[in-house]
Design goal:
It is a multi-pass membrane protein. The protein has 17 helices and ten strands. The chain is an alpha/beta fold. The strands form two sheets. A six-stranded mixed β-sheet has the order 6-7-8-3-9-10, with helices on both faces. The protein has a four-stranded antiparallel β-sheet with strand order 2-1-4-5, sandwiched between helices. The chain binds adenosine-5'-triphosphate and magnesium ion (MG).
Length: 382
């Protein structure tokens, strides 16, 4: 599926206007202790963000800390946006889509993965399979999917390994990340979003995770969008497209050779022996002590990119739903079919009874394997 977004503005909610009694008291307290509104309030987190992500490709969202990468991902997945005012248009295959449909066709792997540490990989995936496909897939079909994602993500060898909790042996960092993907891709979502899939991993494991994403995109025609911090040169070269954000605006979208060209045009070529990703990010970052100057430079680059041929073509594509036909017709017809199917699918993927039994089984496993937890629970009930 081709995903595009256009005219995306996100700003914090005005607490005075819409906040409850507690936030009003908090704001009043801020004013009393002399904190000015401008100091606690940033106007726009995202300002006219636009972009296009294509099937079979991985798109990396990059930029300095605070540039707005996670906010954009949240907007695109329509999750975690209750405390902001957001507007803009999201299209799939050129068609404007709403939250419900977007949720049906996408999966979001967030930065903090939540697992029950006492379960094994296989138990966790079986549990997720019931919740995600209980209504639509029979038990043997679910089991087939579980085995397939484990094979796809190189987790078969770790099937019976306990996930583990902090301080206890369990999966490695890379395996944990791959398990988070496994749960999400089990239903083969056409769109996959990941926030910092490589954070906390060394460069070898980071490369492995990005390779997994790339293989998924290529083999299954998925459209994958993720944020990433300081990728190594080797990992950076693996990205099909990169989108650089700066202070909530789009500074660049394109492939790596186009990025190199753009930075040359801006008179900031990548110095020899330098990691290009580091160079691109630092040239779009706010420099401490030189904030005003940095902002002028950032805005200049964002404006210049928006007015360049490349920028205009992406903006056009995102704004009009115009497709450049850069992905094959088989991918395009497949994604039309998926979209039509998603429109008719049910919201809850498991029956009430399936949800109840899966959750009870999971609780029993965690209580029996972690006697300490049982003691705490008994203690809490008295
Ligand atoms: N709900 C919110 N209310 C107010 N400000 C917010 C809110 N969410 C994010 N921000 C601010 O918007 C800016 C962008 O945040 P975001 O989390 O998108 O950055 P990021 O690019 O993902 O950064 P990092 O690389 O550190 O994860 C930050 O300055 C952040 O403090
Ligand atoms: Mg972030």
């Amino acid at each position: 599926m081709e995903l595009s977004w256009h005219g995306v503005y996100v700003k914090p909610k005005h607490k005075n206007e819409s906040g409850n009694i507690f936030s009003r008291i908090k704001n009043f307290a801020h004013q009393k202790i002399g904190e000015k509104k401008s100091e606690i309030h940033r106007e726009h987190i995202l300002q006219n963000a636009y972009g296009v992500a294509q099937p079979g490709e991985i798109l990396a969202l990059m930029g300095a800390s605070g540039a707005g990468k996670t906010t954009l991902l949240n907007y695109l997945t329509q999750r975690n946006i209750h405390d902001v005012e957001a507007s803009g248009t999201i299209r799939i295959n050129g068609e404007v889509v709403k939250k419900q449909l977007l949720r049906k066709v996408s999966a979001y792997v967030q930065q903090e993965d939540l697992f029950i540490g006492s379960m094994t990989v296989l138990e966790h995936l079986r549990f997720m399979a019931v919740l995600r496909m209980g209504r639509t897939h029979k038990k043997n079909e679910r089991e087939r999917r579980v085995r397939m994602v484990m094979a796809d993500l190189g987790l078969t060898g770790a099937a019976n390994t306990v996930i583990g909790v902090f301080g206890k042996r369990g999966l490695s960092g890379g395996e944990r990340k791959r398990l988070a993907f496994a749960s999400e891709i089990m239903t083969s979502p056409p769109l996959l979003f990941c926030d910092e899939p490589t954070s906390g991993l060394d460069s070898f494991l980071a490369k492995q995770v990005v390779q997994v994403l790339k293989t998924l995109a290529r083999r299954k025609g998925m459209t994958i969008v993720f944020t990433i911090h300081q990728p190594s040169s080797q990992v950076f070269e693996m990205f099909d497209k990169v989108l650089f954000m700066a202070e909530g605006r789009v500074a660049f979208l394109g492939d790596i050779s186009q990025a190199t060209e753009m930075w040359n045009k801006w008179g900031e070529p990548v110095p020899e022996q330098f990691n290009p990703a580091d160079h691109f990010i630092s040239s779009l970052a706010m420099q401490i002590g030189k904030e005003k100057k940095s902002l002028v430079r950032i805005n200049k680059y964002c404006d210049e990119f928006a007015q360049s041929e490349l920028g205009k073509s992406y903006m056009n594509e995102a704004g009009n739903g115009f497709r450049r036909g850069s992905f094959s017709s088989s991918l395009s017809s497949g994604s039309e079919e998926m979209l039509a199917k998603a429109k008719n699918s049910q919201r809850y993927k498991a029956t009430w009874f399936q949800q109840y039994t899966a959750l009870t089984k999971r609780s029993l496993i965690s209580i029996l394997r972690e006697p300490m937890l049982l003691k705490v629970r008994i203690f809490q009930t008295f």
